[in-house]
């Protein structure tokens, strides 16, 4: 067995980390898009 498998730094599930890696950037870009939409609507 690999020595790194015996003593991992993080025992978190990788699925949770990948969900965080997708959700937070997605929400950030949705927020930026929403700001642009609000500026576009009020700018007319």
TrEMBL record:
Regions that span the bilayer: 22-42
Pfam family, one: YqzM
Domain of life the protein comes from: Bacteria
Keywords: Membrane, Transmembrane, Transmembrane helix
Record bears the keyword Membrane: yes
Membrane in keyword set: yes
InterPro entries the record matches: YqzM (IPR025416)
Record's protein name: YqzM family protein
Organism, scientific name: Oceanobacillus chungangensis
């Amino acid at each position: 067995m690999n020595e790194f498998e015996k003593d991992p730094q993080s025992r978190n599930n990788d699925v949770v980390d990948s969900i965080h890696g997708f959700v937070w950037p997605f929400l950030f870009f949705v927020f930026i898009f929403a700001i642009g939409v609000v500026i576009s609507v009020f700018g007319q």
